[in-house]
Design goal:
Order of helices and strands: HHHHHHEEHEHEHHHHHEHHHHHHH
Radius of gyration: 22 Å
Helix content: 40-55%
Number of domains: 2
Distance between the termini: 60 Å
Amino acid sequence: MPCFYRPLFLLCVAAVTLILRANMDPPVMSMHAVIEQLSSRNSSIPAVLPSSLSIVDAWSPNSNAETGGFDWNDAKSCLCPNSSPRHSEFGLTLFKLARYEIGLNITGRNETDEEEFVRTFFLFPPKFSIFRDPMHGNASVIYVGDLKVASHQIRHSLRALGLREEELDLSSMKRKRTSPDACVITAVRDPVEHFLSGYSEHEYRTAMFAETRGLVDEMRVRYKSHRYGEPRRFEQLVEDFLADPGFFLFKKRSEELAYTKLLRHMWGQSRILTVLEGLGLNLTSYLPSIKNITEEWYEFVLESCPSAAERVLEFRRRHNRPMEISGQHESSKDLFHFRRAANAVWADRGPTARALCALHAIDYACFDRLPKGIHVLCAEVYSGGHFLDEIRKGCE
């Protein structure tokens, strides 16, 4: 950044910080002190607590006896048999189990709204990009994009191979005829980490953009009564997410319901599989983590997409460089500690963290090649008698 831009940038950041703290009884700070405080913060992305490569010890030894021998492997087969998520059968159950973990016995939403919210979480359509080889015009790669999984960077990398991109929504994708040789790929990340990262961007957009702030102001949800950047605000957001009718007390905006736009960074990842299934497509492969994506992406494409292998090899011969970093959202810097607050709640391993485990059980069941497996805390939830009994009932 040119030196003469930096003071303006810091002043803008400081001004936003003061706005976020307005009407919250904050300690009085000078503008200089605010700028100094923000400048000194570590801008690295806070990491979710590490998972364990071996979670055998986390499974409850009593769970089998309590559930007649039914365990996580059985539950996994019910939730996502052959990588086909059973959202319609278990979506409402997982929301109910998540509420159980935080002591909410009922939802405040009526039956219709509850079904709609759950359906959106599990089925909201992702975006598609078809990449064609200009030499013959056939589709080489179909990339299924999602928010908070380096989608911008991935698309940029595929264009760098010389492939031509065509962006499509679900309705357009339904009308497309694609080459049977085209690979269908995506990238995912740890489901809980995905939710925490999505929350951070949601809060950043609420604080920084008038349109998002307007949506939040319109909804009668409880979490917004808590201070920005505090763990309790995140805890309340999770409770509202699971049960509060306030997300539905709004006006329609165009053809899109307001809450679907507001919360879109936090929808589940396994919905990708369900949408593909509805299109008659199978996912060829997925990159199970974006932690080392710059080093791993082109190798992943080479292994997964024979239709694009020649392009990858040619790119390597000419450039011999890893994937370029691009498209990182400003919320990743966590200047206002939104992600740090969410991480603190997760690290506490309390009811909210356990609820997130229950909510994302289908994601963990479907994407079972995550580098660190399932979090130990989630393993404890998934081995609990109540969780397994509810899943077993749905399997019968």
